[in-house]
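During the first year of the project, the team set up a workflow for recording each protein of interest as an amino acid sequence followed immediately by a discrete structure-token representation. This format lets reviewers and collaborators read both layers of information side by side without switching files. As required by the reporting guidelines, we include two representative entries from the current panel. The first entry is reproduced here exactly as it appears in our internal archive.
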Amino acid sequence: MPRAWICFPGAPYTQHAAQTGAQAVLRDWDIEVPSTPPSDADATPTDYNAYIADYDLLPFDAILSKGALCSSYMIRKALIRKHYLAQSLHAFGVKRNISTDVAPRSWALDIQFADELDELLADDLYDVRDALTANEECSSEDERTWFILKPGMADQGNGIRLFSSLERLQEIFEEMEGDASDDEDDDAVYASQLRHFVIQHYISTPLLLAPSSGGMRKFHLRAYVTCVGGLQVYLHNDMLALFAPVAYTPPTEEGDLHGHLSNTCLGEKQAAEQGIPVLPSVFLFRDLVDTPISAPGASEAKLTQAHMDAIRLGAVNAIGTTFEAVAREASVHWQMWPNAFEIFGVDLMVSCDASLSPDSMRVWLLEINAQPDFKQSGAKLEGTIQHVFERAIQLGVLQEEGWPAGESRDGVTCCFADEIVKHP
């Protein structure tokens, strides 16, 4: 009887979903959950046929030599580090002379000190410099081209800044250097410690929804994507909608970022600091049909099933294009073992024009997260996460036969399928 080992210490929500999902589909397997988790990968037993576990506990050397199945790729930083992801998409499009505008236009920069910025703006970031210079002629902030700065390896929204002027960009890096002397600021991102950043075009026409009281709010979609071997890419159709904690307002140089960032950790922190109730921020996206929608400069309408269908198709395209680009252009930094599979959390943004028509819906891929924080889904959506694990285990452990891109089976849509890495 084949044996599976399941262990996510410190993440009881994930442990329960993975264990329940495995028990539902691995009926002829012996499933073991250790009563005392190992301290590290060296202490993990190596005699199992499949490992569904925390990345740090996977015995990759034994897995590689014995061909056991495992729930993570050993190397996949090309997916999860923003600067690698931006570079892969750019290279993929340039080499093939095709459009890869499934993500906001991005510029990767390597900077340690603020005084290095002038040289970067003159060389690698001249497009950004020209746009910021042109902004000086705009009569209002609404007319400006806005950009967003993201640290390449930070998470939970830390270090993100908006800017529309050269002066503000310079100030941001000077502030980061100043923060380095303040050890008490847990959210500070120090330019002297993080060299890699990404500048992206800010999506200025986001689709806005009003899922509850609090007005029209910005949101992003959290899609769970299972990759198998080398390479099949599957979208779990039930996406989550994660909302900003306050109503959306157009960006300003001195404005509050809370209306622009839809990370749940930021909303909880703001509510705690201000002593205010936390607005509901996580919803199953398909439950939001008939919710009021709008966009900057648009009137109000209702979210219809036609909108939902258009957005899902856009998500399939954005995810398929992105994962293919990284697989083909960054094989050193994403090594696709044929016996590996992994669930990624993919963050997507939806934009539209003032018509709010389904045809105007456009889906952008923002980032890819390894070992996503499933517990943000909450108890209400635990069944959804369990189904994610069930289907991932069917695809990655039971090796369910794949199907063509664009088709859906049992709540999962294939976004990409090609034998980029051939089985021995």
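The second entry, processed by the same pipeline in the following quarter, appears below.
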Amino acid sequence: MLTKTQLILLGLSTGMLTLFLESAKGIALPARIESTTGIVKLKRQNWTEFKPVSINTELNKGDQIFPLQGVRVTVLCPDLQQRPVSSGVPSGLKTICPIWEALKAKNPPPPGSLGGTNALIPYLISPRHTLILTDTPILRWNEVSQTRYYTIKVMDSQRIIWEKQVSQTQISYPGTPVFRPGIPYSVTIQTDGGQSSEQDKASKIEFIRLHSSEVATIQAEVNKIEQLNINKQTKALILADFYGTYTLPTSTFNNYVLSSQSLATYHLTSEAIAILETTIKQGQNSAIIERNLADLYWQIGLANLATNHYLKAIELAQIPEQLEEKTLAQFGLGEVYAALGDNNQAKIWYSKAREGYLALGDSARANFVIQLIESLP
């Protein structure tokens, strides 16, 4: 099995490949193609040639971007500045966006969080292994057929603090009792037929309320993104990038009950998921949106939902400009099935991803996928 260091050196993780900017204030954002009036091509460091890509494509520091003659392209850089790209010639992203920092790889689901595979139980969807900003999160769970009502319980480490019976599959927590910042809380759901979320394989899926000082810092960064005059999909993706990769500053770890190792796996994932799901409901769907949503569900161990959205991304990625998105979704499916122990399906999807990387001219990643396939029984 390859180590995380090896994965990072290859530019891959057991999740999506992403370049993040992490400033002193803790913001983490990629660059993206924000607008284009025509065909734009991209050559990543490992690619042998330029390939056409679509709006909202994520950009890395070592990439070269090539709008065809007369095509106007704008890139949203990691510092949230919109910068034009010269047409008719290749340009390095380092010259377009001057501020780039460390490459970070997304991680697989944290130990104990993998679940969401049994459609017959009301497994928790949200808030699941996530940080939360308010005392009124929306509680969501899997719908179980022929269920008349669900019993919801919210608990701290010692007792039940709130209980409610509802007929729907989500409810807003009323805000009282308030959540104590830094303390892990859990949610259980039981159907009138006796099926319980505790039958899910996952055990480490608590949520944590942030302290007000962290909330204020986050809101300031979110306000900067909200004020940008950019297209709706790009804004949604940038917000999801920020929420989905936010981690607590190490200087605040003493204010939280969990270990530093565990806290490092907590992000504002529920916020990120809500942003992309709202975007889809507003008719702003695309392969990039679906694949990013799948990555987020996989980040908190929800295997079925991740699988569904990876498949939707593949379904939507039917033009040459979306070859990379299709390949990333296929790779994601390989990861999910490998983690679930379904090695036959894992090999099928990894093989499809390898074909995609070869079509992109990325032999390094194609060879990496071969290693993954060969590591499976």
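For the second entry, the following points were noted during internal review. Residues 17-96 form one domain. The first strand starts at residue 21 and ends at 22. Both points are flagged for discussion at the upcoming steering committee meeting.
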